[in-house]
Amino acid sequence: MRTADLLAFAVGAARGNRVRTALSMLAMAIGVAAVVTLTALGDGARRYVVREFSAIGSNLVIVLPGRTETGGINPGSFVSGTPRDLSIDDAQALQRAPAVQRVAPLAVGTSELSVAGKLREGMVVGTTAEYIDVRQSKMAQGQFLPHEDWNRASMVMVIGAKLRAELFPNEAALGRFVRVGDRRFRVIGVLASTGSGLGMNTDELAIVPVSVAQAMFNTNTLFRILVEARNRDAIEPAKHQVTQIIQQRHDGEQDVTVITQDAMLATFDKLLGTLTLGVAGIAAISLGVAGILVMNVMLVSVSQRRSEIGLLKALGASGRTIRGAFLVEAALLSSAGALFGYALGLAGAALIRALAPQFPASPPDWAVLAGLGTALCTGLLFGVLPARNAARLDPVTALARR
What we know:
Layout: H1 3-16, H2 18-54, E1 60-65, H3 88-93, E2 100-115, E3 118-127, H4 131-134, E4 139-142, E5 156-159, H5 161-167, E6 177-180, E7 183-191, E8 196-197, E9 200-201, E10 205-209, H6 210-216, E11 224-229, H7 235-249, E12 256-260, H8 261-304, H9 306-314, H10 319-355, H11 365-391, H12 395-400
Parallel strand pairs: 3-10, 5-7
Antiparallel strand pairs: 1-11, 1-12, 2-3, 2-6, 2-11, 4-7, 5-10, 6-7, 8-9
Helix pairs in contact: 1-10, 2-8, 2-10, 2-11, 8-10, 8-11, 10-11
């Protein structure tokens, strides 16, 4: 029997029982769609986190108060206790490290912002003029914070694009005053819209000099210190030098955590890559279930088509030909279901992107190939037993049975 005849035989058998064929294809399609959609979610999460960390700047070394013994990063890294808090003097001392290009201290808090009767709760960030270069941000209007003594600062403010639109919807913001708590600040600049990074939406920030922010929030500590290395090759030396300087200033105590941007990216990339593989494995279980369904359908098909099989063998078809015909049918069902599932998975990923445009949910190529390949292999594997049973039928017994 030629290949074309085998395909015609398989297509005819599939059309002979449309409900059974549709159920088999649907089971396989659900399995492949689950693999494609879940890996799209996992890989989308990985790329989203990488993009968020990349948005905070380049060649960064971040100093956090508190010691993380593993040297890694976890939720506790951002809110942790320490025998000695980070101070402005600590940040200034880091400027003398040979591998350091810039240093930007951060003091963060929330306060009520008011302009001409309009009130809004907002995040206030205290920092210095170096912040805009460390974060690689751009100005839409005006200028950023002036270069001045970190401990004695002017009452000036730079606001994000969204905050400007809410506080000054129909008028210019530059030169206007904004009351933050019990203090008045003059707006000297508006940041260009950049969106969020590490959970902090820069479009909604009010940025003031660091010493003023510390006075507002009645604290001498810093939330963290952003350190920019001179280049990528200087990241590790900068990390070592920063650690040594802080340790010397803190009486030999290693009471801070110093992490690099590359280390954070590598950690999250590995973690979320493993998560993607895990959800792909879980989704692949459904392909095994679909394969069992294909096997059951094929076994029923063999029992229902005994006369047809007996006639083919009586006409001279070999057991190998019969076995090949049923394997082709199993492969046809699996392939059609896999392609349908691939289309469903792409539609699911597109829906996720439509609902959450900031989330790049697209299935990786390896997941698509693995899903389609596993579906085909599963169909063929579970089609072997029915094909063998069909090939072993005695033609006389098969024709005699009704």
